[in-house]
Fold each of these.
Amino acid sequence: MAEAEGIKGLVVEERESSDGEPRVAGADAVALAVATDAAKHDPELARKAGAYLDEQQTLVRLQIKHFDEEHELAIAAAKRKRFADRVRNCLSAGLLTLLTCAIIGLIWLAFDAVHSQEVVVVPFDLSPGLSSRNLTAKIVAAGVLDELSRIQMTSRSSTEKSPLANAWQRELKIEVPETGLSIGEVMRTLRERFGHDVRLEGDLIETPAHGLALTVRGTGLVPKTFYGTEAELETLIRQGAEYLYAQARPALWAAYLDNHDRFDEAIVFARANVARTHGRERARLLNMWSDAVASTGSMHDAAALSRAAVEMDPDDWGSRADLIEFTADAGDDEGAWRAGMEMMRRAGGRPGRAPEINYGYWDQMTFNLQARLAAHLEDLAGTNGEGTNFGPSWAVEPTVQSLQHDPESAERTLGTAAIDDSKAVDRALRHWVNLLLAVDRDDWPRAAKEGVEARDESRGPQGLVGYYAPALACLTAVALEHAGQRAEADRSFALADNPDSVACRSYRGDVSELRGDWTGAQRIYAEAVAVAPDLPIAYYSWGRALAKHGDLEGASAKLALAHEHGPHWADPLKAWGDVLARSGKSSEALAKYDEALKYAPNWHALQEARGAAAKSAR
């Protein structure tokens, strides 16, 4: 008995450690083996051993049962933990997203505020007696806003225009949590603190003499009062709006004056206000000043103002474009060409940062006609058909089509153009296109008539006509010489605005050749090449004259140079092909004709010459 108890105790001791934790399974197995062996010789011990084994079997069943339950509970707990982790991760991600959006929103609001340059009109104050006359603070402010919008819409300029807004329409009814402030108020506060908005306001009161006094003021602007009767309220509002616009955006106001042919006013205004402008605004104002001077005075002065604008803002592409034009009109064609190359370099090539429309005059000088027309049409599309250049931009398309020897398209375009017959410049440019068409047909009497009409109609502002019709008077002189009107041709040369330009010199050479002065003509051609060695027109005129006099080798050399400096101009290629065809080099002539067709695909004479060369090359 004592032995059996000892065996049981051995088993129990072996199963438990001193701290109550189960030992390894191997210890129970050894103890059980010893007890089983001893039970073989002691029935009582055998009985107790059997009872012990039964207890162990019951314990095992219970352990297995509890293990399954605990396993299921553990799985359920793991699922709950995994779900809780997912919910926590989603909440964390959501909070992080909201925080990120809030930070981005604040950054956007701050960026918008810092870079904002809006002109904001707030409700005007009215004296109490005016309320009974269907006048309110918003109505007066809206009238000022309408006038500001009208001025801006009729200002054609490359100057960036400020968005116009009114205070009550800008309000956004979204509340910021726990502050009671609307998003609009937050934006307005940030713009007032960090931005460059111009807030316009004022008041309308009755005067003792039963008239009205409208006072307008704005951020950084000197208040001004306008007086009138109640019947003159619209006039007062217009005067107030014009004053505010001129003070808030001087460059755009000068552009408005230029657009409406108020050049003298533009010059006076620019001179008086340039000192109070800075940076890009000053550059733009200088540019508008130069446009006004170009239309009324010295091209040298206009070029100097454009150069000053470029120095103030090297990325003012409008000023660079005007610098090209005014430098050429001042008699420095080569300098104008260099100015165009510098703009291209500054813009990072072409296409680049400079809008293509700003290469218009440079393309005209180099006879890059397709690019000239493409940029013009793109500019019209982006400005609702108005264009950014001053003057009658309708003239560009038929001019280019005429120079590409496409009379059908030019006449169709001219017939549908928005020509204002009340303006001399529009009448002059219509005659200019007809001059080009007559020259293309070798109809010299018609060309002479159209040229004289164009020349005489253009005696007003020269800057506008000269931009669209360069060397007009000098080409007219060539037409007059062909028509047998020598004295009138000389007179036309004398009337030229820029008689020393490379184009006018080339046309003088043509006239000298027509008069039989071949030595004098070659001297003039050489002078034309010398003043503008990087432009193609003098090489072209000289090459054609050499071919006419039988110097085919010399003609080829000059026409090759014309093509080198005007690679997109069909005329030198066509003339070069003609020279090669006369030299019996039909295959080479065919190659020149094919290349020329890329730039003047509808030129009938070119198509005929190409067909003849193709037959000879077989």
Note: The longest strand covers residues 198-206.
Amino acid sequence: MKSRLFTNLTIAVLALSVVLAGSSPALAKSSSKSGGTVTFALPPGSLPTYIFPFVSGPNSNNIDLFQFTPFMWRPLYWFGKGNQAGINYSQSVGQAPVYSNGGRTVTVNMNRNYKWSDGQPVTNRDVELWMNIFSAEKANYLAYSVGSIPDDITSMSFPASTPYQFSLTFNKAYSHLWLLYNQLSQITPIPQHAWDRTSATGAVGNYDLTVAGATAVYTFLNAQSSKEATYASNPVWKTVDGPWHLSAFSPSTGYAAYVPNPSYGGPGKPKIAKFEEIPFTSDTAEFDALRSGQLDYGYLPSEDISQEKYFTSKGYQVAPWTDFGFNDFFVNFLSPSVGPIFQQLYVRQALQTLVNQPQISKDIYHGTAYPTYGPVPVQPPNPYISKAVKDNPYPYSVSGAKKLLSSNGWAVHPGGTDTCAKPGSGAGQCGAGITNGEALSFTETVATGSAPFTAEVEAIQSSWSEAGIHVTLHQESPDQIFAGLEPCSNGNAGCNWQIVNFGSPGETPTYSPEYLPTGGPWFATNGANNVQGYSNRTMDAKIAATETNSSPSAVQAFGTYAAEQLPNIWQPDYDYQLSVISPKLHGAVPQDPNLNLYPQNWTLSS
């Protein structure tokens, strides 16, 4: 997740000087040309960390998912078209699915133009390798939820006689919208002729055709992906079907460089000669590089919003980059120490009531953030937004929070720490598992790196204190948080955390590879990203209804329930970034709300 502490500025500038030559931001004649190098700013603390497209939640971040692996390996279906978040068949390997067998069987014809960088065609055998690994190692995939793909598939057909076609039969007839946006969307063809192996020196075979073999192939590829220093040199990662090859990578800084894949068969052949992702350790370092003309595509930190006119006066384009996602922070329902407290809805309501989203958005983010009250995105406009998600079920109120706590058995001590005065699970009592004298005192782990985000969590901490909820802030880098944040189960080592907030700008949850905003991975019982251990039968039923009902009303009902039940605590969402684009760079807008980049469409002016 995005981290922006203003530290290690010297390191960032030194790293930048190695990979960049200085350039002037002065206006130039806009004669478009082929070739040249484009530099793109990575957010501080968010670096490429995992190259294998079959990525687990703890191993992934937004850069891996949207601005790293898709350059090299194209998913079966591409989502994002201009500034909208829907299906984009023109960018997809798969054509529109065809349904038969009462809607239970889905047949996909593949675009024959795609081929691997070694000249081999992309076929259904490459899809089969993905599906066999998926079936064997589903627990290691970031978007897997129990009962979802591949659990809901009863049979698969990948006929050699029709290598550009395959069929999947599901256990019942699902909504066509849900199947496309949340099931087929999770498939990425991977090169069976190069990757179906169990060791670097072993021969390629058909190992994936057995469960044990598929596991062995996954183990090999996962091990290769852990060797970050070899990303640019490892022969495994040289076989790509996307528009770009990785030509250089530094695991210590996150610097990555890409050159065109001459065998790319999809739309938009790269016109620039090189594309570089430049890492930074702070917003200050990125802003200094941007102002000095060393970046073609950067961002304006919210604390520097007053500098927008400077850049527009120099011919730069300043454009908000909307993120089709939501923003929340986790409370640990299964914490051995405080889980029973968080399981009480009234406690979560008190916490939520003290998050002053309108004020935070206005005073801290200066209009680059906006309140969100549930998991359905409010930007860009979409048909899934319910009234509860637009409005605020829990308006800011210190007195309201105090009343919630005092009426449920707590002795409220504003500025101090509330304690349970009436233990028990009856009316007016603290709730099951909460002992006499137990305190509303928590530790919140927050991501480092962003001054506005730090100001936000400190403002919320202060509001909580007014109602006697004592919270100690503990900062860690996003990578540290990811490493220690595992899906919870009672008693495991990963359940020692209490509150975790890594929702700084640019690193909020984005709907991918499940693009219909139904929240299954985050809020369904045993969902892949449900690290907080939330479990609610009604929530599961609301999510399940979105799988069979194609009407937007099903998603609206889910969003309303989640806004009210608070499986996590909602906080302001942000534009992914306020992009600042050099006048010599063309084709960078509109920006994709699924956070995809299209450097193959970019050109430079001299």
Note: The chain has three domains: 9-69+242-322+576-605, 79-213, 328-574.
Amino acid sequence: MYGWTGNILRVNLTTKTYKKEAYSEEFAQTWVGGRGFAAKILYDELKAGTDPLGPDNKFIVALGPIAGIPAPNTGKAVVAAKSPLTGFYGDGNLGTRVSEHLRKAGYDALIVEGKADRPTMLYIEDDKVEFLPADAVWGQGTYATNDWIYAKYGKGVGVLNIGQGGENLIRYAVVRSLEGRAGGRPGMGAVMGSKLLKAIVVKGSRPIPQADPANMKALGQGDLKKVGRIDKETGWSIQSTTGVLSFCNEVAGLPVRNFRKTHHPDAWKIDGERLNNARIATYGCPNCTMRCGITIHDKEGRESELDYENIGLLGANLEIFDLPQVGSLNYLCDEYGLDTMSAGCVLGFYADAIDHGATSGDFKFGDAERAKELLRMAAHREGKVGNLLADGSLRMAREFGHGSEAYAMQVKGLDVAAYNCKFIPGQALAFGVAAIGAHHREAWIITFEIKHTTRESYGPEKAAKVIELQRIRGGMFEFLVACRFPWIELGWSLDNYPKYFKASTGLDWTLDDMWTRADRIYGLIKLHFLREFPDTTRKADYPPAVWFDPANADTEGPIAGKVLDAEKYDGLLQHYYDQRGYDRRGIPTKATLDKLGLGREAAAVEKYARLY
């Protein structure tokens, strides 16, 4: 078996034991890697009702058959667990040297079980595994923790760590690595914290098994240069992802004032041009030649690395249009190890709930200094307010009542990414049916919707586009594992990825073979959800209710007077179900599950939910 090491490392923090476990070629070809491995392992090894913050939950680091190999943007790893935020399968990816080092150590995945008896750092070097005390950095942020690790082992090692957010079980705490790299929006950092696992450090020295290493090296290194050249020709990295802000503001798709507004005259003050002008450094993931991490000095003079989601949700959504102040909010999220998207949504919801009388408080839109204090309180679960903010917008809304759940900007508990879909039906659907909750990673169809089709349409072509993008973005890139940006931003052909896959594994797969695996993984994640929420209805696949509320319509601008139509959205959702092979409840039919090879997995859900 080439392309895969054929091994998983299983570590138990309670007993301080570990073992190498072999997996079959059939398992590899069925689930491929990354998200596929993680979803399958967690499905098989967790019971329904497992406490996400209890010792029985498992923290997974999973890689794919091209992860870590020098080729365009392959320096990614998937982190996964049962989510403390959403209550079912959760994951995320982040750029990290772990992608290379764990594979060179001889493993395609790491399973962490149990709970340590003290703050612990897991050190993996080839066959050696050590459980080391991390008391020295427990209570400290991710920057100090990284520095402490680098001082011990050098900057070339692979690192995953958490800040105070993970330690204090903030439900949207993330896992951090390198400079501005973070992943695991649904609380993967809190799962590490619940296990008293402060950091994972990996150092590997073996070659990654490949079918044709000479060809893989030539192909991958040559294509890295090509991608870098295209980036320079197009100038994408001048603004990188932050160039989206001006576009969203122009087309009325920007989150402003807890998504109440869709554009703002001051948005230009924090846009990509201003960010580029303030740039002091640029960072990227391993094996990247189109680095997207633009770093500026924040209000306090610290280095803060920003992207579109940061400025959209910590800036425009909070009506804070002072770029250094947005940088400060982003720095605090990175330091504490908090998801910037959820943090922006939580703060926006809190200000909105105060405005609408659902709760009392002293936070107002535009108040950057109070926002900083609230982030600190959330990260430390300080007082009643800190505890509320730490649990995410859905739990906050259920605590506040007074109809506030309608404007808590989340789907299935995961806060919405920085795209205001008040009148963008296809992207609203993408959020509604995303595998883990409202994540733009799964499908981003705004440009297709606005530039290449009728914005007002709720037709089947939009459902088809969502599925197409789920197969690519939430599927292939998440199981291979690699970054999607060369394809999205630079037009790097998808046909390149079967070539990398073949050079690595020797298997001559087509893109259709990739889509088959993607559909299987999406089906399995749906079963994860049904196992935990057996009484679910199609309403679980709806975006926030405020997007359907005529009282929330813009009064001026390109979509004045327009909001999503609930009846038409329901029809669009049915188009998605029909094309996916789901019944009217949004549950895969028996024929679909059999086609996907999920009959055995579905049978295990039957005692919780009536599938057929």
Note: The mean pLDDT is 96.
Amino acid sequence: MKELVLRLFKRPVLAAEIFIATLFITMLTLAMPLYVIQILNRYVTYGFHGTLITLTAGMLMAVFLQLAFRILRTKMTTIVNQTPNDRLSLEVLDIISRAKAEPLDQFSKPRIQETLNHVQTVQKTYDAQTVNTVVDAPFSLLLIAVIYLLSPLLAGLALTGIAIGLFTGWVSTRKSQQGAEELVIENARHRAMTYSAVNALDTVRAFGVGGFLQNIWQDQVAKISQWQKKITVSKEISQTLTLSGSSLTSVFLYAVGAILVVQGKLTVGALIGANILASRAYQNTTRLVPAGYMLSRAKKALHDIALMQRLPMEPASGSALRIYKGRVEFQDVGFAYPGMSHPLFESLSFTISPGTAMAVVGQNGTGKTTLAKLLMGLLEPRRGSILADDVNLQQLAWPWWRKQIIYMPQEPSFINGTIRENIVFLDPDLDEALLNHILRKSDLKPFLDLTPNGLDTFLTDNGKNLPPGIRRRLSLARGLVTNGHLVVLDEPTDAMDETGRLAVYKLMNDLMNAGKTIVVFSNDPKIVKGVSTVLNLNIKPTPEIIHKPLPGTEGE
């Protein structure tokens, strides 16, 4: 509710117009009971057709005016929610795009996906219908006030019926809400397990994981079914109580009103009009119950989104060097992942001169990929500094810096889209001739020539449907688009066939001849042989740096 109030009063003029429109809608609601009262008290009594025509014409005007005001109000309440809903969606996308990688990694992928779903929950909740429901409720007091003018006793009965309807609805909603929270937890667990199984279909088949999954899924599905049943029953009870409350209120109104009619304290028309007003007031107020349930869900969703919004973000601004020559320097760099007993690096210091090549070697887990991510700015050192041409990376604008690097990660992933789109993200206007040159350099051209749609082939499942070697070629092509002065290649020949490895060797030679600075993370003997510097991460705590005067990779 707080969020709804904030949204309304961020647009005070529009909010005032919404309240004025609601006032007119409420006043026009009085037309029907007044029409009934006048029909029964005047036309039925005297039978003058002119009275009927006049009353009916007035009633029709009221119906169309009310319709116009409702349409106008709906448009205004849509405007109230449109900007905050759009902003929330963009903020979550910005978090995914700019949140620092290490804190974001603390959120599991299913949890991140759940947060994205929360955005839709908020957008569905804070819509025109919810705002209209909340605004209508207090104006229902005007309807009760009119009943009071007809009969204070009937007004008291109407208020009592509404209070009971709200209370029973609130109790039922509370039970549904508790069940819904449990259902969300169980659904999240089930989705996480499903996500795990779908991403490892070969493992499921090859190692007979089906029995293991079946036991877990049976338990999860049973719990989900149980909570869904409880929620369904609770909702049905809530709806039944609401409808019964409306009927009971009408019964008591007619019963008491009939006595007042017999006593001459109330006319039949006034009795029927009072019941119509009470029904409208009951309907307007009890609609708050489902709206309140939705608002509570949206509140929980906003809370979860807020947790992600607290993640530290990469700075939106920073410096950009006029010319980056390709020099990289590590000064006393230390890094450890949370929970590690020992750091990967304690005091790592070295310099890579422009136009030279360095190979980083080491066993699995020694920190090769971590070092590559530190160079990319995807991770930050716990201590020390990384300099680019004597400027600390932390002072540079990350988008600019990443465009200075030809980057090929160890485990490439892609976005669902065409191959062309995945290659040219960093330069959407890339010249076609240059794109074809890149495709040949990365040895991707033969694969595309055999693919019916070529560059327009659509990637699904983040490109996991492609063979590993093709994914690496595609990753290499994507990196070459920047034509940066620094080349960071993480296991470039891994999963490559002989043709692919030869293409990598030749490409590295070409990049060295072009004066690029190359940092390659690989244990490939041919790559290690061709570089001038080797950083051995197997040596702890201080990695060994070996300098050797070699011209470059030969790719023999």
Note: The two ends are 70 Å apart (CA to CA).
